[in-house]
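quick q for whoever's on today - can somebody do inverse folding on this one?? i tried earlier but teh output was garbage lol. tokens:
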């Protein structure tokens, strides 16, 4: 994680893994794979002396055409050619992580499928700077190449920049846009940071990578301690946080897997050395649904390529560029040039009513206060009844912007509860905090943050909803429940998978009864099924 001070490691093992199938034989000379949507087989178990045949899937982009001679134009082969790190294969941690990756081809299949959108760009930027290609695999261990990844510590994007570090390296953040999720901006910032760390640690790439995770101060102090004690100052001899002690071995391990897949019984579908996307200058703000329409590309694909945009449109103040799949770029540019400026986004005229405020109006139109102020030349927040405001608004229903920040958050609310857990939807009220909710529901603040794609220090807004997963405690025999601080009848009913009416009946209570911590409630047995 790109971080000057604090350390957090996004564990690749914790990610949801996609299924991996056996690929049927296919005699076509040219093949194509579709990223993620159809779950193509990009990684499979190698079979000695048998020609590899890959699953046919609908063409997504010309970049993913698999060449007859993969060594002629294969990004994985190019990666191998530009590797320069000592793999340290005799190190126990490196061996352990290699073993994990080698036994999780489902994870590798998911990783390579997701990376396929971005890897051409990232790898070529790394090579252009004269950096070893192992650097292009850092997003694999940071986020599994997911630009929407967010840690409980608020690191975000494929390169997992912390807010302060992102700010330092010029990654803009506002209501409309977060440069940490922008694959172009974040890659440039990450490589600038890594080059700085490489120079700072006198050309030692392992120390630079360690500092990318733990912060240059943490690694620098460890180096100074060893110097003072007359000890070696290489990565392997430094006393560093546990996450960092595993971070560098993970990078070495995943690099070894890509360097010598056959040694571990794996084969990677070749990834053609062609760009997946083209960067198009759009000059000014545009609704992302309009961009999808003009390019003929699904709006989900527009969001995945332009993950930096958080709302239904691009940032009115830029960046004024959009990434579009290569095969759709020409059509998009022609259609965009013919588009009337007034058709880029929708405008609504609104008359201020009693009780209105800029925040109320902004929420109603899925926009923010600053946008309303700018669009109407307002210097402050004062508005009066009857005043007419011109407000930019989404062209289609908010639910159609499936990967906007709001929709990604709401998707968490509909997620199924894990086995043995029960989902509670909590509406934020005055005085709520993650700490208070963790005590009330007997879960950790980190868990609540992870379930809701937020940071542990995120500000809670009254009226927002959080998904919380509590232990399911369905009684199968007569029992008692000890009331905890913060409990109420509704929460207890959800926790025990019974109804409020049943609790009232079993305990001779009314809906107005006051529950006290330590009070015992009778819980009747559930009838046996079958």
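ok took a stab at it. sequence:
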């Amino acid at each position: 994680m790109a971080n000057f001070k604090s350390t957090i490691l996004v564990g690749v093992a914790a990610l949801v893994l996609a299924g991996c199938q056996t690929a049927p034989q296919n005699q076509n000379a040219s093949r194509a794979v579709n990223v993620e949507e159809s779950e193509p087989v990009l990684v499979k178990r190698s079979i000695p002396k048998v020609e590899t045949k890959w699953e046919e899937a609908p063409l997504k982009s010309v970049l993913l055409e698999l060449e007859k001679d993969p060594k002629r134009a294969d990004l994985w082969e190019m990666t191998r050619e530009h590797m320069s790190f000592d793999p340290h294969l005799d190190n126990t941690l490196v061996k352990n992580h290699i073993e994990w990756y080698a036994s999780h081809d489902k994870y590798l299949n998911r990783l390579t499928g997701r990376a396929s959108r971005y890897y051409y760009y990232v790898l070529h930027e790394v090579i252009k700077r004269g950096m070893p290609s192992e650097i292009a695999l850092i997003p694999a261990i940071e986020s599994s190449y997911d630009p929407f990844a967010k840690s409980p510590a608020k690191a975000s994007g494929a390169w997992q920049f912390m807010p302060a570090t992102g700010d330092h390296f010029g990654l803009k953040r506002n209501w409309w846009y977060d440069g940490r999720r922008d694959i172009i901006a974040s890659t440039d910032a990450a490589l600038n940071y890594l080059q700085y760390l490489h120079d700072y640690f006198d050309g030692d790439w392992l120390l630079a990578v360690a500092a990318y995770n733990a912060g240059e101060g943490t690694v620098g102090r460890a180096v100074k301690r060893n110097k003072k004690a007359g000890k070696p100052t290489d990565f392997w001899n430094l006393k560093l946080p546990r996450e960092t002690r595993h971070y560098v071995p993970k990078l070495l391990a995943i690099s070894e897997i890509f360097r010598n897949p056959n040694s571990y019984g794996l084969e990677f579908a070749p990834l053609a050395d062609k760009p997946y996307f083209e960067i198009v200058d759009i000059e000014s703000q545009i609704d992302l649904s309009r961009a999808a329409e003009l390019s003929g590309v699904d709006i989900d694909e527009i969001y995945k390529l332009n993950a930096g945009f958080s709302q239904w449109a691009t940032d009115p103040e830029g960046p004024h560029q959009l990434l579009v799949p290569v095969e759709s770029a020409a059509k998009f540019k022609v259609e965009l040039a013919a588009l009337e400026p007034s058709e880029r986004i929708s405008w609504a005229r609104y008359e201020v009513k009693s009780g209105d405020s800029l925040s109320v109006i902004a929420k109603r139109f899925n926009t923010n206060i600053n946008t309303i102020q700018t669009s109407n030349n307002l210097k402050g927040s004062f508005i009066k009844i009857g005043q007419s405001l011109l407000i930019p608004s989404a062209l289609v229903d908010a639910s159609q912007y499936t990967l906007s920040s709001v929709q990604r958050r709401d998707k968490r609310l509909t997620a199924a509860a894990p086995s043995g857990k029960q989902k509670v939807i909590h509406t934020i009220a005055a005085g709520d905090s993650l700490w208070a909710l963790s005590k009330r529901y007997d879960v950790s603040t980190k868990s609540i943050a992870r379930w809701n794609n937020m940071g542990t220090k995120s500000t809670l807004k009254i009226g927002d909803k959080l998904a919380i997963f509590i232990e399911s405690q369905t009684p199968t025999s007569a029992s008692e429940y000890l009331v905890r601080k913060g409990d109420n009848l509704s929460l207890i009913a959800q926790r025990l998978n019974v109804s409020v009416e049943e609790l009232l009946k079993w305990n001779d209570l009314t809906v107005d009864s006051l529950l006290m911590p330590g009070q015992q409630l009778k819980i009747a047995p559930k009838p046996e099924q079958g």
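fwiw Residues 277-337 form one domain. also The longest strand covers residues 421-427. so keep that in mind when u check it
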